[in-house]
């Protein structure tokens, strides 16, 4: 039975505007549009919308989802099996992180003792969800070198890198309302530049500037970075661009 756009929006829990946008970009077009302009969605449309939302949940950009589901080789059943595998892996990691948070709270309350190693259980450095974008921007060689460097890290070094990253992000978040071109901001962003080059390979000034731009162009980056403070991604983007420009 065909359903109107408002019915679909209410059923799924997304906005009518989102469905209109999916139609505009050719991601999900209704089976039929009536003479009076009503969009009518079929059961096949619903199944495809489910696929789209699964891909979104796994952090795949809309432009990539469109390319995937438009491919002649796309198999919905096979995709569902892969979704299940990846979501179960994601759930397992989240369970470990939740357990780490719980133990950390108890440790801070003096209820249990916690080793430094236990403080970082659940963090996964083996997979980079932004690798495809990085390859497009910087090429396979740069990304492969970075991956090799990460894989060669000991667990202690990985923990050290995580702690240092948190410290730098926290510091940047504390000054995000200042000018990104200020001396204070530039000193702080240089720490980020040095950090990336120390732990993850050779970042040129151009690559550093491009990475900063990705922080605001890719909503996944923005969301993750802004957890430290709203507007941090934009602040870092501007500070990184200025740093690259004045150090050429």
UniProtKB/TrEMBL annotation:
Keywords: Activator, Coiled coil, DNA-binding, Transcription, Transcription regulation
Domain HTH merR-type: 2-71
Alphabetized PROSITE patterns for the sequence: HTH_MERR_2
Organism superkingdom: Bacteria
CDD domains noted in UniProt: HTH_TipAL-Mta
Pfam families per record: MerR_1, TipAS
Coiled-coil ranges from the UniProt annotation: 80-107
GO molecular function terms noted in the UniProt entry: DNA binding; DNA-binding transcription factor activity
Keyword Disulfide bond: no
InterPro entries: DNA-bd_dom_put_sf (IPR009061), MerR-type_HTH_dom (IPR000551), MerR_fam (IPR047057), TipA-like_antibiotic-bd (IPR036244), TipAS_dom (IPR012925)
Protein name, entry field: DNA-binding transcriptional regulator, MerR family
Organism: Aliicoccus persicus
Organism ancestry: Bacteria, Bacillati, Bacillota, Bacilli, Bacillales
């Amino acid at each position: 039975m065909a359903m109107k756009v408002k019915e679909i929006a209410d059923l799924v829990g997304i906005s009518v505007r989102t469905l209109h946008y999916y139609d505009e970009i050719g991601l999900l077009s209704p089976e039929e549009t009536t003479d009076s302009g009503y969009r009518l969605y079929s059961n096949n449309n619903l199944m495809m919308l489910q696929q789209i939302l699964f891909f979104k949940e796994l952090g795949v950009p809309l432009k990539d989802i469109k390319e995937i589901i438009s491919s002649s080789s796309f198999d919905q059943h096979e995709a569902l099996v892969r979704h299940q595998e990846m979501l179960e892996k994601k759930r397992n990691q989240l369970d470990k992180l939740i357990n780490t948070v719980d133990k950390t709270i108890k440790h801070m309350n003096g209820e249990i003792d916690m080793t430094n190693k236990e403080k970082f259980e659940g963090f996964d450095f083996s997979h980079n969800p932004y690798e495809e974008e990085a390859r497009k921007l910087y090429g396979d060689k740069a990304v492969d070198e970075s991956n090799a460097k990460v894989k060669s890290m000991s667990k202690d070094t990985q923990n050290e890198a995580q702690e240092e990253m948190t410290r730098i992000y926290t510091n940047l978040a504390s000054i995000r309302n200042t000018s990104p071109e200020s001396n204070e901001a530039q000193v702080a962003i240089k720490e980020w530049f040095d950090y990336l080059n120390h732990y993850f390979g050779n970042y040129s000034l151009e690559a550093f500037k491009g990475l900063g731009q990705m922080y605001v162009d890719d909503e996944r980056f923005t969301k993750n970075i802004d957890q430290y403070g709203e507007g941090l991604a934009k602040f870092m983007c501007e500070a990184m661009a200025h740093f690259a420009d004045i150090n050429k």
